[in-house]
Amino acid sequence: MTQRALVGEAGTRRLRAGFRAGAAAALCVMVLAGASPAWAAPPRAGRPAVSVRGFADFNYDWFAAKQSFSAVFGKSTGTFVGGGAQVVFRTGLYVEIGVSRFQETGQRAYVYGGQAYGLHIPLTARLVPIEFTGGYRFSLTPRLIVYGGGGLGTTQYTETSQFVSSSQNVSTRATSYQVRAGAEYRLARWVGVAGELQYRRVPGIFGKSGVSQAFGESNLGGTALDVKVIVGR
Amino acid sequence: MGERLSEGIRERRSWRAPRPGVWKGVLALVAAGLVVQGAARRMVAGPLLTGLQHVEALTGLSAGAHRLVLQRVTLPGIDTGLRPYTITKRPGVPERALEIANRPPSTTSYVPGRLIVKFTSQVSAAAGAAILAAHGARLAIRPPNADFDLATIPTSTDPEALAATLNQRPDVAYAQADYREHATMVPNDPLYSYQWNFKKIGMESAWDINPGASPSIVVAVLDTGMAFENVRIQFQGASFQSGSDTYPALGTVDEDFAPAPDLASAGRFVDPYDFIWDDADPVDTDGHGTHVAGTIGQLTNNNVGTAGIAYNVKFMPVKVLDSQWDDIFGSPNQGTDDVVAEGIRYAADHGAQVINMSLGRTGPPAPAIQDAMQYAVSKGAFIAVAGGNDYENGNPPEVLPEIAAQIQGVVSVGAVDPNLNRAPYSSTGSYIELAAPGGSFDNGFGADGGILQQTLDLSQVDTYDLPPAQYGPPRFDAFAYYFFTGTSMATAHVSGLAALLMQQGITSPAAVEAAMEQFATHEGAAGRNDEYGFGLINPTATLLGLGLAR
Question: Which of B205, B502, B504, B546 to mutate to test the interface with A (most CBs of A within 10 A)?
Answer without folding.
Answer: B546
